[in-house]
Every structure is written in C-alpha cells, then in structure tokens.
Amino acid sequence: MKLSINKKLFLQSWGLAERSTSSSSSMSILSSVLVKASPEKVTLQATDIKTSIICTASGINVLEPGEAVFPVKIVSELFKKAPGEEFSLFVSDGRVVLKAGKSKYNFSTYPVREFPTLPTSEDAKMFCKISVDKLAEVIEEGTLAASSGEEFPLYLSSANFQISNGILN
C-alpha cells in the first residue's frame, strides 16, 4: 500500500476512528485502526468491541491499494507531529515507512487477519425515515436528562426511541 496524505484533512477522519479504539484492552488489536485503501476510497475501521466505526478518510491519494492495521499509540503522534502539510506512507510486509519532508519514520503494523470483523448494515431493514435535522433535534431534546456519569446504570445515559404508527417518541 502506498498513500500520499494531506495531513490536515486526514487527521479529521483519523480522529474519529481513534476515539473508537480501546486504550485499556488486553487485546492490542483493539488499540488499532484498520486502513483499507482502494483506488476509489480509503476507509478507516476501529472498534473497542462495544462501539465500532467505519469512516471514509479524506485527503488521501492512493498510489497503490492495500490494507494495514496501524497501532494507535505510535501512529497518532507520528501523524500529528509529522512536519509539513503532507506526508506519504508505504506499507510492505508488516512494516511502514512514513516520509514527511526530510523526516523518515519506520514502525510495524498488526496482522490484518487479527482485526475483528465489524458488523455491517447490509442486512438491516429500514424502520423509519427521518431528516438529519429532525433527528438531531429529537436527540438534543430527548437526551437533556440523560446521565453522563459512569456511577449510574448504562440505561440512564441512553435514549429510547419508540416508533408507532409513523410517530417517533
């Protein structure tokens, strides 16, 4: 895999994926992000087993497609501190070379086969249709009383959506 990356645009997508990783898991693969590069797009996948995310990364030119699992602890700091506005990544046989300006960094990846398979929505059935603005309004108004602390049961920090006869409660 070979990528040319616009640092500012990519870090926005990377930040989303990074927040879905686990920093306290005994499984190191859960502290990583799976990067899948095809000629059409680059996707980032991350999970802590409870929460998963798949997002399309911005600011990447795919020179050679491929996939790799990047360890978050090492890579996040390298991405953020890489000099300049652009950097390149070359991945081969579990090794990565990151080049930014005159700087060059090397690190290892995790095996792709160890990354958990994330659930997909391909088999999901639509149960309602709602505009983004209306959904945001419902969430904002409905979660006002939700608990944000961990000292309360999980259901007190959640939202319960009920749909009956086309009405969302």
Descriptive key words:
169 residues, alpha+beta, DNA Polymerase III, Chain A, domain 2, 2 domains, five-stranded antiparallel beta sheet, four-stranded antiparallel beta sheet, 3 helices, 33% strand, elongated
Give an overview in words.
This protein has 169 residues and is α+β, with helices and mostly antiparallel strands. The chain has 2 domains: 2-114, DNA Polymerase III, Chain A, domain 2 (Roll), CATH 3.10.150.10; 132-168, no CATH class. The chain contains 3 helices and 11 strands, in the order βαβββββαβββαββ. The chain has helices spanning 7-19, 72-81, 132-142; strands at residues 2-6, 32-37, 42-47, 52-56, 60-64, 66-71, 86-92, 95-100, 103-108, 163-164, 167-168. The strands form 3 sheets. It has a 5-stranded antiparallel beta sheet with strand order 5-1-7-8-9. A hairpin with a 2-residue loop joins strand 10 (163-164) and strand 11 (167-168). The longest helix has 13 residues, at 7-19. The radius of gyration is 19 Å and the shape is elongated.
Shape: elongated
Radius of gyration: 19 Å
Q: Give the strand tally.
A: 11
CATH superfamily of the largest domain: DNA Polymerase III, subunit A, domain 2
CATH architecture type of the largest domain: Roll
Helix percentage: 10-25%
List the domain count as a whole number.
2
Main sheet properties? 5 strands, antiparallel
> Unreliable stretches, pLDDT < 50, 5 or more residues?
none
**What integer is the average pLDDT?**
86
- What distance lies between the first and last C-alpha atoms, to the nearest angstrom? 47 Å
Strand order of the largest sheet: 5-1-7-8-9
Enter the CATH topology name of the largest domain: DNA Polymerase III, Chain A, domain 2
Secondary structural class:
alpha+beta
Strand content: 25-35%
Encode the helix/strand succession as letters.
Answer: EHEEEEEHEEEHEE
Name of the CATH first level of the largest domain? Alpha Beta
Oligomer: single chain
Work out the helix count: 3
